[in-house]
Amino acid sequence: MIAKLAAQAAFAALILMAGNIPAWAQTDDVMDMGFTAGELQITGAFSRATLPGAPTAGGYMTITNMGAEEDRLVSASSDVAGMVEMHEMRMQDDVMHMSPVEEGVVIPAGESVSLSPGGLHLMFMQLAEPFKEGTMVPVMLTFDKAGSVEVLLHVGAFNADGPETMEMDSGGTDMDMNDGD
Fold first, then answer.
1. How many domains is the chain built from?
2. Could you count the other beta carbons within 10 Å of the beta carbon of residue 14?
3. What range does the domain containing 40 cover?
4. pLDDT 10s digits, 23-52
5. Which helix (H) or strand (E) element contains residue 76?
């Protein structure tokens, strides 16, 4: 298990340096790459491509607490944005409202919390450049108990629902990440 995590970390570093997935690295393991912080497992991390000049983007993932105590996502940061905040969208009087989650996101013991479009999510603001489909975006997540972990968000199409249906840029060869299900 440790060897697999080390290999995934090395692979992730290569992807960040290259900006895309090289043809020799086209495997289903790319999308299965999860991240761990203490008793927390982070999976399904993705974002959506943005239009040129767009000032914001969203970040999504599932955080599962395998421990016996709750933890809390207290902050997020990324070199690709001037600021990253935790936000929630909610309906109030038939109007959708989005607001920062100042107190952080609680991850109850033995449960999972999804950051997803239309609900809790990360909001990348003051983008340094557009998010390009097929690339990955690094984000540092900081938890109250588990500490910090860098997570890579796979950037999908403008309307991506999750990482399982994304196509990754492999230098000119599209790779369908859906197993055909």
1. 1
2. 12
3. 35-166
4. 323 334 444 569 999 999 999 999 999 999
5. strand 71-77
